[in-house]
């Protein structure tokens, strides 16, 4: 059977029926990677020998009557996850030889569920970019147009899925790192509610793999269908067994609705701080039209929506101050002087980034208090709506730009230039309050590039945007293989 673009659900059914073996699926995936990945560079650390061994064990387990959700299914893993025996570098040259001795908790979970890990996927330097390139592993190209980025920081995973290199992948997200690559490559991803999925072992090289409650950052699933996202999230979700898992078991609420016509959806396509490109606006409109055709209640405005400009500034403050805490920077006194010279009325995101880098603890506490007010605003909104549909970034995938200083880059939107990092404000809309968000493809732009949107849902009600994603996949179509 030709399995390249079959879903994880379809592969599991074929394995159960004896129509194919895991060894056959694994060999086919490896052959495709060896044939096609030179042009894409998605798989930066192949692990083919161990994958074949895992596939043989999966076939033996199935012959014994074992049933596990991912038994025998080939998958990939973002390079930033620890896998015993493989390098974890985060693309940082000085750590090119660092090899952890223990799997990350999510790698352990997918292996326990029977997954066959083909290898690790490429990332940007330190996971700190909307593209995926680094000195160690090079550049990952977009499967739809090799002159463009596949996104970041889970760009290798999204490109691998679009090319048929395994049925599933796992990534991470703090600034759209699951959602942006999915949008750029035409696949699905889900940013879980903050704290829903244990993250131990998804740490910078040499850092101890300890349980921690990260601010903003999450780990989550990527796939080629919405149903496969749910399948993988069910494997990944739950507290760390070393901490909250000692006392708690997870039980996610069911989706609020099962029929498209029962959903109440707020649709957004305008942001006060950045323009929305026509291709993305058309993608949002395609989803809105499908919702209306399906009988859903669709609104374009709501007085309950938290202030988007304030949300973007709070997100910027929390993101940049947290990044500075994790990656100490030099020349703080010079930065403080630059902050002091900023006009008091400069409320641009560029000014917010600069101020946040020198935040005090009390500054952070004030921003966190603002976040709590926004969380309450979202709770009120989700009493009236079930989901929010909005862009992930303002444009489809853009051309590779390897300018070293991100602050010197710009993003072109309909002929107007904006600071490069301003494009993450849409991703931050869900990240800042910790809400779940599912990225879905909506079709192709006039240039033939994938365009996605995100479905933001209520906190810890991840099954609601995931179910809406399934229904929209039926209504407007889903993944398309690159031509």
Automatic annotation (TrEMBL):
Keyword ATP-binding applies? no
Gene Ontology terms for molecular function: amidase activity
- What Enzyme Commission number(s) does the record list for this chain? 3.5.1.4
EC top class named in words: hydrolase
Q: Identify the residues that the record assigns to the Amidase domain, covering every copy.
A: 24-464
Keyword terms of this UniProt record: Hydrolase
Give yes or no: UniProt keyword Hydrolase: yes
Q: Which SUPFAM superfamilies match?
A: Amidase signature (AS) enzymes
Q: What is this protein called?
A: Amidase
Q: What's the source species for this entry?
A: Catenulispora pinistramenti
